[in-house]
Amino acid sequence: MADEAILYRMILPEHTCPFGVRAKALLEQHGLAVDDRILRTRDEVDAFEAEHQVETTPQIFIAGKRIGGCDELEAYLEDARMAP
Predict the structure, then answer these.
(1) What pLDDT score was predicted for residue 15?
(2) What is the structure's pLDDT at 84?
(3) What CA–CA distances, in Å, run from 2 to 6, 31, 39, 55, 64?
């Protein structure tokens, strides 16, 4: 597994995405350095989602590969832990 992950997550003035908080915690618990990229406005979120052709945040990238959101990250980390 790579040593660093890029995490795009939404923290708006009126809302902090709980899935982004969970994704960051999971990455740190598994010893990955987190490049935490905060999307601070609805326009930033919408632009990110359009650029990456995704419907939700957070989105996690490890070793240049898009893993997906929090659920996909959990599955990825479980698979990586089970790998020889």
Answers:
(1) 95
(2) 54
(3) 11, 10, 24, 25, 10
